[in-house]
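Regression test case RT-17, inverse folding.

Input:
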């Protein structure tokens, strides 16, 4: 039995062409694009309300009123 020649320039085995992009690759790219667009719209929506951490809407007195009503309801 002869030993293989490891010094040859030609690759051994079967040459297989590189697979083209499948439908799953296209779907993955589309989903990443959709997530980026959703993040941009979320940022724009949050910036309309003063940005992250800003409070526009219910005041603290309304929060206290809701908390008091919840305590009354769940009191046993």
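Golden output:
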């Amino acid at each position: 039995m002869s030993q293989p020649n490891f010094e040859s320039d030609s690759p051994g085995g079967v040459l297989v062409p590189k697979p083209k992009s499948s439908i799953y690759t296209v779907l993955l790219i589309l989903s990443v694009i959709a997530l980026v667009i959703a993040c941009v719209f979320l940022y724009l929506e949050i910036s309309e309300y003063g940005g992250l951490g800003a409070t526009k809407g219910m005041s603290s007195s309304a929060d206290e009123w809701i908390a008091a009503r919840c305590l009354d309801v769940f009191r046993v």
